[in-house]
Amino acid sequence: MPDLLTSEELEAKLREVGAERYHHRHPFQIRLQSGQCSRGEVEAWALNRYLYQACIPRKDAAILSRMDDVALRREWRQRIVDHDGDHDGDGGIARWLKLTDDLGLDREAVMSGRLALPATKFAVTAYLTFVREQSLLAAVASSLTELFSPSVIQVRTAGMLAHYDYVTPATLAYFTRRPIQAKRDSDCALAFVKAHARTPEQQQDVVAALEFKCAMLWSMLDALEHAYVYAKPAPGAFEPADLGERLAAA
CATH: 3.40.50.970, 2.60.120.260, 1.20.910.10, 2.130.10.10. Which one for 27-241? Predict the structure, then answer.
């Protein structure tokens, strides 16, 4: 039986998971931020990632519906507003669509999700299923990837602006607000986890939940790397204009 960790030890363990498993270490992520991606790869990343962005308020609504504490619900519901906005054209999802619009992608096709890779669809569905079926504690813990996102966003944004002349600060408007929002959200989730993981088993569940979320994000990049760097996308998935040129050169 593992020992019960102190709250400080539990936080350190969670941060260790992020250091080892968060997608800042994924080869595709490194390609993206260092200017090594073709335009088609950037387009494929933005289109597929939209499916994850669009699921976030649904994920948070599922978590919110399971909370008994009124104060916690008030705090958590801000996440939904951040992504859905208060009106049309507002919120994180709208700002992500600004990114896909600027890349020349058809908005209806992006929003429909029909061109996303099968693995992207499976990953997003798995995440929604996880937060609905696992314990509330595990569902909250799965959101703790936000502990690590601010530094990744900073590196990604700087790299994309430096290396892709078709990307502007307005294109990347989604990332402008996310570091502050992610810090607020991760502070809330971390406090909840540290207060409610009171047994070794619960602490193990919390760590496993964060490992699951890291694996889910990693798997999405695995799929992008396979489809758009080394092989070709699945039938019916997005095919960038430069796909034929890349396959011919391979």
Answer: 1.20.910.10
Q: How long, in residues, is the chain?
A: 250
3-state helix, strand, coil in the chain (%, to 5): 75, 0, 25
Nearest residue to 239 (alpha-carbon basis) of 121, 123, 115: 115
| Three-state SS at 53 | helix
Contact 169, 102 (CB under 8 A): no
Compute φ and ψ for 5, nearest 5 degrees.
Answer: -85, 150
Residues 6+ apart with CB under 8 A from 227: 44, 117, 233, 234, 237
Contact status, residue 44 vs residue 242, Cβ threshold 8 Å: no
pLDDT in tens, 41-71: 999 999 999 999 999 999 999 999 999 999 9
**How much is the pTM?**
0.95
**How far is 227 from 229, CA to CA, in rounded Å?**
6
User: Can you list the pairs that 117-120 forms with residues at least 24 positions away whose Cβ atoms lie under 8 Å?
Assistant: 117/48, 117/223, 117/224, 117/227, 117/233, 117/234, 117/237, 117/238, 118/223, 118/234, 118/237, 119/219, 119/220, 119/222, 119/223, 120/48, 120/51, 120/52, 120/220, 120/223
**For the segment 167-198, what is each residue's pLDDT rounded down to a tens digit?**
999 999 999 999 999 999 999 999 999 999 99
The model's confidence at residue 250, banded by pLDDT at 50, 70 and 90, is low
Residue 89: count other Cβ atoms within 10 Å of its Cβ.
10
21, 215 in Cβ contact below 8 A?
A: yes
Phi, psi (rounded to 5 degrees) for 67: -90, 130
